[in-house]
Amino acid sequence: MNLIRRPSPLAAYRPRTLDDPFGRMVESMVEDMFAPFTTGQQMSQWAGEGVATPRINVRETEKSFEIEAEMPGVKKEDVKVSVENQRVTIEAESKRDTEEREGENVVYSEHSARKYMRSFSLPTEVDEAAAQAHLENGMLTLSLPKKQAGAATRLTVQ
């Protein structure tokens, strides 16, 4: 359920929806159902058991996008980042230490292996060749320079 009421594109077709409690309820249910696909919320229930969507911060400067993603327990060799045009995809896996010691029984363990996956689009294209990634203390930092617009080409009208 949304706490902030936003105008829906459906309201144009049903002008009395805001006055109708049942209409508001149905509209809210439909918006909530599709929210993970439109807002980038957690999608682990569709991605499979043990797959988490890392939380991210995206900042835009004049020349680049700076992205931070929380990925605790992940080593840099287990992270894959791909950038294609405006699309950024982050995948990683934290491996569980399953070493068993003689004479010990694990009574309780909250440590587990976890997979991370997140894919999102940026508003402008990125220069893939100049992109950089750095992982430190469970925080993945991406520096993605914006692709410079090429010089305009003047056409001769014939």
UniProtKB/TrEMBL annotation:
Residue intervals of the CS domain: 51-156
Domain SHSP: residue ranges: 47-158
Q: Which InterPro entries match?
A: A-crystallin/Hsp20_dom, CS_dom, HSP20-like_chaperone, Small_HSP
Pfam families in UniProt = HSP20 (PF00011)
**Family per UniProt?**
Belongs to the small heat shock protein (HSP20) family.
Q: What is this protein called?
A: Hsp20/alpha crystallin family protein
Species of provenance: Massilia polaris
